[in-house]
Request: fold
Amino acid sequence: MAYVALSEAEKTFILHGVEEDYRCDGRSRRDYRPMELETGLVSNASGSARLRLANTDILVGVKTEIDVPHQLTPEFGKLEFFVDCSANATPEFEGRGGSDLAQELILSLKNAYESPFAFDYRSLCLIPGQQCWKLYIDILILECGGNLYDAVSLAAKAALFNTKLPRVTATLLDAGITDLIISDNPYDCTRIGIETVPLLVTVCKIGDFCLVDPSAEEEACSTVSMVVAVSQRNNEAFLSGTHMTGGGSMHRDTMLNCLQLGLSIGDYLDKLLVKMLKQEQERVGPKRPKIVGFLK
Amino acid sequence: MQTLREFTRKTKRGNILKIVREHYLRDDIGCGSDICQHCFQNDVYALTADHDLQSSLFKYPHYLVLDTNVVLDQIDVLEEDVLRNVIILTTVLNEVKHKSSSIYKRINEIIHDRRRNFYVFVNEHHKDTYADREPDETANDRNDRAIRIATKWYDNHLKSSQVSKSFQRSGRQVTRVVLLTDDAGNRAKAEAEDILVATASEYVKSLSDHPLLADKLSHKTFANEKQALPQYPPHLSLREILEGLKQKKLLQGSFQASRENYLEGNVNVEQYEKGILIQGRESLNRAVDGDIVAIELLPQSEWSAPSEIVLEEKNVYADDLPSEERTEEEKVMLQQVRAAAVVDAERTPTGRIVGIVRRKWRQYCGILQPSLIEDTSRHIFVPADRKIPRIRIETRQAATLQNQRIIVTIDNWPRNSRYPHGHFVRSLGPLGDMNTENEVILLEHDVPHCKFSEEVLSFLPKMPWTITPEDYAKRVDLRDLYICSVDPPGCTDIDDALHCRELENGNLEVGVHIADVSHFIRPGNALDKEAAARGTTVYLVGKRIDMVPELLSSNLCSLVGGVERFAFSCVWEMDKEANIIKKRFHKSVIKSKRAMTYEEAQVLIDDSTQDNEIAKSLRHLNRLAKILKKRRMDNGALVLASPEIRFQVDSETHEPLEVEVKQLRDTNSMVEEFMLLANISVAEHIAAEFSECAVLRRHPKPPTTNFDPLIKAARYQGFEIETETGLSLSHSLDKCVKADNPYFNTMIRILTTRCMMQAVYFISGSLQKEEFFHYGLAAPIYTHFTSPIRRYSDIMVHRLLAASIGADSTYAQLLERKSNEELCHNLNYRHKMAQYAGRASVGLNTHLFFRGKEEDEEGYVLFVRKNALQVLIPKYGLEGTLYLKTDKDGKDGHERAKSTVVFTFSEEDHTQRCGNVVFHSFDPVTVRLSLDSSNVQHEKLVFRLVKPYIKGFSVETGSESAADVAAPPPTKKTKKNQKKK
Reply:
């Protein structure tokens, strides 16, 4: 995690703020910082999204490919995450500096997605046992302003929402071999169902209290955080994974509090995200928006 | 401005990729019109006010915008110098390019012709005419919309330039823009958008000044056609075909119609060695020779055998309804064949055509068939190539075209029409005219024969050409050697010269010097590309179609006597027994001391009083050549024979005066031996240097079944032919000698030649080393090095050799296997076509020679067929059919035979018997030759029997004795078949 130089006095100040439920930037413990989200901005990718959460800047691109399903899960498609911590975000990411963080992010996303009912891998399967889509979710961290987990999961979900898979029809050949035919109309595509795609909510413990969306400075004050993966099912939020970060430990009651807080925040966040995404889609329409640039 | 084009594509490995391309829109693309006052024009105006076409539809000046279907279907109309001021949109151009590369090439030629005023408007990159694809719009719809947008834009754009006061004062009419489209949907939409629109045929017919242009319209559907019943089963759709092919239910291959029987054909399919037989009109299902077709194999019980009957389509008329009688006849024929096949064990896989994968229609030469009905515009066109069916065309100029060779192209072939529909393209000239006939031969054999373009000529060296000191420095100076060339008389493209001298150590130095064509033709330029496309020089009787421009072929490259020329030399040191001790290759400058004919060289060798250097070296060469030849024969090289003749041509009328069989002398063989040696030496060298990309030539061993007819024929005569190896074949051929029939051996060799496979060029990397073998020459490796002036393969070999010895620079393409392989394919094709064209030319001249003559000649029976004898006339190298069973119409003119004379064919020993006269293969006969001109297009030589005399069948010789006219028995000649080399 990005290193923030903080003096003892500053840490105490933050701690007291949290106790008072009045954080440095004026938020309560259950408040998020303002977010900006834009989708479909990488024209080369099948789907993309860019999320800016205060200073945290994430770009996600989704690439698609045809693959053979895994033998043990012949009816499942494939999903692969890749996180790149750009050295632009912080000098510590230079070289292989960001790889530990990247690995951690990939793992938590993977766990959350692979939880039963969380993400429907079946929707990515074309012909069971023979052909399926493989999605590469490439996440680029451009700037670190704290709360990476939440930001990354939000951006990933938005990118998946934006992803267009070309419509494919299969024809059956002899000996059970199938051949895929793609539609020549670039507008003729299928979407991925994102209702159940999980979001990650980081619940950070500072002092005796738990809060969400910690800023980089708050993260420096915390000894332990819990990442709660929240997924929707039948309009009801449920837990699809948890994950602890930081060196500290947590009392059982605190942990329960954390989970409940995460769940309720995650539920709210998810509904808001889906609503905003749908609004954006309606506004833009099926055609690609004109890109504004110096050539226009 | 910029926009993006997105599309998805499936890769070969089955992956699906999204591809995005940037697409820039501009505002500085000119409209190309001289009326326009807005656009910045960086070019001369393409669209001018000078041309005015009188159209009854649009009675004001107008420009034309063409839809893609108009360009694709009506290219022949566009090629006529009538339509001007035409706007070609890039949308259209791209679609044309995608659909037909040949039409794309043709439209480009029109566009580049400045006088035609065709303007390419880059509508796809113009900011006002770019059409982005809408959701739920097919690619085709988008293109149609783009065309309409551009037309509309043009019209408005020009209008805005023509509203000014000064324009109105000039009193000129406003120029409009008209869209021509044959697509009904597009037309309706255009009308709704207030665009002036017409179909191509409406427009062309409205041109009052050019009534004949309508002939060139392609008719997808003939107007006011009475709906006849479908005569053919429907074709499968392309998708069904692809599915069928994938499921292995259908097979794909190229269709070859039979020359002899119009109801028969063959489809070459990969897995089947002999191809799949197609019989009957319905099974052929509208396939035309060359098409790539999809076929369905019939169950084995319905397999048939190729009929040995020669069946030619009788005269038909444009009414297109098959008479009952004819259909009946066809059925009978089929049944006969099938019945025969049941008995016969020779049944081959048989199938029927269910769909066409790709049409390979081209333009066909031929003549119009005289019509019975006067003043009709529908006519039947008879192609010169018998493999092509008759074609129905519409023309109003039938009277003028009646005695002309014309070119026609096929438009379509609907199910309910017996014949394909086509349209007239152009006339070649009067029938029987030498130039016209040569043109026909060249066109029919796809020989590129147009003049060399300016661009090609620009790469020729500038005259006067001199050798610079640098050239001398780079090359070995051999000007002092006694080099001479030996060629046939009248040869102007001399590409080889020889020398031989004694060395101090007693050995002989032999040099073969080949014209250094690759010095003048640099890789990759237009000259090189043209030569590569032509592939070979084509020799017709009295005419030569050069591969390289004449300046090179007859002057700078030709190793003429007494002039300094560049050469590529291959020099051996040999001992007296012709064993090679050393060999080297280098570029050189030579000065041939003398260019001789074979005859002159022979005289020089034989004349013992001559003792100059040239005579001495020739004698050495001759002696060495004999040793080399013997060695080659002992290795199993074959001596093959094919009758070859030469015409003496009248220099003015170009008509043949005299026919003679080519004379062969020792010197022919001498030159040939050294050329073979040079070729083999070079082949070994380049194959060793470039194991992956050397250009070589191989002659595969024929499959044993190929020899069956030969073995059979020889067996009836009591000879066994061994075909195990080349050596045993060669020996057994030598043994086939009959004392009473001196020509027997030659005939056996002629038959052997026909069993052979075609020798082909290939790239060394594409085959295993064992397959390099040249069967005819019994050489493990072979290439062509010695005739770069007339063969492109030799130029490729020269370049490889030059690169390997560091005499010339290499370049990337030289070592690229794929492009070289493609070149080889083209060369093989061109060589084959050149051979066929040469033969066709000989055939044509034979006919001309016999025009108005009747001669009795001695000949031999080559084959005995079911209804005919195949007779060979050695004097003319001519082969023809002597029909024994007469046609029903008595077309061959001896219906009298029908009553009394009955021939019985014996299957077992292949004989024809009539009374006490028996015809075996190889029997001598005397036949009377005359020309049957009843079919103007296919004049044919008619053979009629003179001796042995069969009453009621043979020609009545009357008072004159047949022996008077009969030629003396031809001298026995054998000749290495040049073509198999």
